[in-house]
Write a structure and sequence with these properties.
The chain is mostly helical and 522 residues long. It folds into two domains: 207 residues, no CATH class; 243 residues, no CATH class. It has 23 helices and no strands. It is globular. It starts with 7 loop residues before the first helix and ends with a helix.
Length: 522
C-alpha cells in the first residue's frame, strides 16, 4: 500500500467497530425481510396458477411496475418472491451504504477528527480508502447473506446468488457515488442531499424505463437488477456493469480528493446573510432552520410514495386473485374489503417510514451536543429545557405533517378524495410519537445512545415482518407501539388506545426532559 493510503486497514478496523451495531441491525433487518419473502411465497400462492395470475396482475399495473419493477418470467417462483426486494429494497441497501460512507468521510472531516488522523503517519487518502473498503465489505456481506437465505428458503441456487450479487452491486455503486458526493460538498448535510438526490433520480429513471421507455433502464443501476434476469436465462455480464461503474466512481472520488483542501469541498459552501433572521434568536427557530430543507425533500418523497401506493390499491384484487392471497392481506389490514385492507397495511408501513424523519431530528440534536455546538447554544439565554423541547417537539410536529401528506396523497391516488384517508394516517401518530419520545429518552440518558433509536424502528419493523411467520405470542407482538393502532379504514378508531399511547409518549418526554436538565452536557 502506497504512502497516500498508509493506515487504511487500521482505519477500516476502527470504522467497522464504530458501525458494528448499526450494521448488525440494518443488515439483520434486510436479511429477515428476505427470509420472510422467500418462505411465505408458497403459502401466499400455493400453486403455479396462482403465481402466474399474481405476476400478471403485477405486470398489468403501471404503478406497481414503477415501484417494484417488472416480472420478466411470470412463472418463476424466485422472481415473484423477490419482486419487491429486487428494486425497491435495493434502494434501501443503497441508502445504507450512503450513510456508512458519508459518516466516515465527510462526517469525520466536518467534526475535525480527520485532520487529527492525517496529521500522524496516516496517508492523505487513507480515510477515503478505508471508507471504500468498508462499503465493499458491507455490500458483499449483505449480498451474500441474501443469497444464502434465499437458498435456505427453497429458491433456486443460481437465481439466489445472482439476486444477492445485484444487491452487492448496487451497494458498490452507492459507495462510489457517495464518495464522489463527499468530495463535492462542504458539509455532511449537503453530501447527503447530493447522494440521496442522485439515487432518487436513478430510481426515477428506472421507473420511467420500466413503464414506457425501456432502453433508459440500461442507464441506471436500479434497472440492471431486473435486466440481469437472475431467475430466468441470466445475463451474467450485467454484473460487470456494477463493477465498472463502481470502479469509475471510486477513481473519480480519488481524483477529486486531490483537487480540494481538507475540510472543504469542490463546491464551496454558500455564505450566509450578513444579518440573521430574528426567528433564529430562539432554539425552535434554529432547529427549524436546520431541518426545513430535509423536511421539504421528505415531503416530496412521502407524497410520491403515497400517490404510488394509492394508485396500486384499486388493482390489488387482480394482483392477489387467490384465496390464500386474500386471507393474508386481510390479516395484515384486518377484515373487510381487500382494497381497504391494502390501504391500511400501506399506511402502517408509511408510519414506520415517517418515524425515521423524527429520529433524524433527534439524532442530529444529539450529534450537536456531542460535537460541542449545543454547549455554545446553551451558553446564552437558551435553557436546557427549551433546547431539548425545541428538538423533540419539532420532530413530533414534522412527523404529524408527513402523516397528513401520506393521507392526502394516498387518498388522491386511490381516487377517494384528499381527506378521506387523513384520519387513518393520523391514527398512527400516537405510535410514532412513542418511538420518537423513546429515542429522546435514550438521548437524555447519554448523548451517544440517541442513535439506538434506529434500533427501535428496526425491531418494530422486523417484528411486523416475521412475527406472524414465526407465530410469536401476542404479548411479544404487542411490544411494538404500532401493533396497538387500529387498521383504519377497515377497523374503527380506538380513542382509548390512542390516549394511552399519547400518555406514554408524554410521560417519556417529561422524564427525558428532566433527565436532560440534570446530567452533564456531552
Amino acid at each position: 500500500m502506497t504512502d497516500r493510503h498508509r493506515g487504511a486497514r487500521l482505519l477500516l478496523a476502527r470504522d467497522l467497530r464504530v458501525d458494528l451495531r448499526l450494521l448488525v441491525l440494518w443488515i439483520g433487518a434486510l436479511s429477515l425481510l428476505v427470509l420472510a419473502s422467500a418462505v411465505s411465497i408458497e403459502t401466499l400462492y400455493p400453486d403455479a396458477k396462482d403465481r402466474i395470475q399474481a405476476a400478471a396482475g403485477l405486470n398489468n399495473s403501471p404503478a406497481t411496475v414503477a415501484l417494484y419493477g417488472p416480472i420478466i418470467d411470470e412463472s418463476s417462483v424466485g422472481e415473484l418472491a423477490m419482486t419487491k426486494l429486487t428494486v425497491l429494497y435495493a434502494f434501501i441497501v443503497a441508502l445504507l451504504l450512503m450513510v456508512v460512507v458519508r459518516r466516515h468521510t465527510r462526517g469525520e472531516e466536518e467534526s475535525g477528527r480527520t485532520e487529527l488522523v492525517v496529521a500522524t503517519a496516516v496517508g492523505r487518502s487513507a480515510p477515503l480508502t478505508a471508507a471504500l473498503m468498508l462499503g465493499a465489505l458491507v455490500s458483499s456481506v449483505t449480498g451474500l447473506l441474501a443469497a444464502v437465505i434465499d437458498v435456505g428458503g427453497g429458491l433456486p441456487v443460481t437465481g439466489s446468488f445472482l439476486f444477492g450479487a445485484s444487491w452487492a452491486g448496487i451497494g458498490l455503486v452507492a459507495t462510489g457515488l457517495t464518495a464522489v458526493a463527499c468530495q463535492l460538498s462542504a458539509s455532511s448535510r449537503a453530501c447527503a442531499g447530493i447522494a440521496s438526490a442522485s439515487l432518487g433520480v436513478l430510481y426515477l429513471v428506472r421507473a420511467v424505463a420500466d413503464v414506457s421507455i425501456g432502453w433508459l433502464g440500461w442507464l441506471t443501476p436500479f434497472g440492471w437488477g431486473t435486466r440481469l434476469q437472475a431467475w430466468h436465462e441470466p445475463r451474467w455480464w450485467v454484473l460487470g456493469l456494477y463493477a465498472a461503474l463502481a470502479g469509475v466512481l471510486a477513481l473519480a472520488a480519488y481524483a477529486l480528493r486531490e483537487r480540494r483542501d481538507l475540510g472543504s469541498g469542490l463546491w464551496p459552501a454558500r455564505p450566509g446573510r450578513a444579518t440573521g433572521s430574528p426567528r433564529l434568536g430562539g432554539a425552535t427557530g434554529l432547529v427549524w432552520r436546520l431541518d426545513r430543507a430535509a423536511l421539504g425533500w421528505w415531503t416530496l418523497a412521502v407524497a410520491a410514495m403515497g400517490t404510488l401506493f394509492g394508485l396500486i390499491a384499486p388493482g390489488v384484487e387482480d394482483m392477489l386473485d387467490s384465496d390464500a392471497g386474500r386471507r393474508i392481506i386481510e390479516q395484515i389490514g384486518g377484515t373487510g374489503k381487500l382494497e381497504d385492507a391494502m390501504l391500511a397495511a400501506v399506511i402502517a408501513v408509511s408510519a414506520v417510514t415517517v418515524t425515521c424523519f423524527g429520529l433524524m431530528v433527534v439524532v442530529r440534536a444529539a450529534n450537536d451536543e456531542r460535537d460541542g455546538r449545543a454547549e455554545l447554544l446553551m451558553s446564552g439565554p437558551t435553557s436546557r429545557w427549551t433546547a431539548f423541547l425545541a428538538a423533540t417537539l419539532t420532530a413530533l410536529g414534522a412527523v404529524v405533517w408527513l402523516l397528513v401528506v401520506v393521507g392526502i396523497t394516498m387518498g388522491l391516488g386511490a381516487g377517494r378524495g384528499p381527506w378521506t384517508l387523513v384520519p387513518a394516517a393520523l391514527a398512527q401518530a400516537p405510535a410514532v410519537a412513542v418511538v420518537v419520545a423513546a429515542a429522546a429518552g435514550l438521548w437524555s440518558l447519554r448523548v451517544t445512545w440517541a442513535a439506538a433509536g434506529w434500533g427501535i424502528v428496526v425491531f418494530c419493523l422486523v417484528l411486523e415482518a416475521v412475527g406472524g411467520l414465526l407465530e410469536l405470542p401476542d404479548w411479544v407482538l404487542g411490544v411494538s407501539p404500532y401493533a396497538h393502532v387500529p387498521a383504519i379504514p377497515v377497523e374503527s378508531a380506538d380513542p382509548v388506545g390512542a390516549a394511552v399511547l399519547v400518555a406514554i409518549a408524554v410521560g417519556l418526554l417529561v422524564a427525558a426532559a428532566g433527565r436532560f436538565r440534570s446530567r452533564d452536557l456531552g
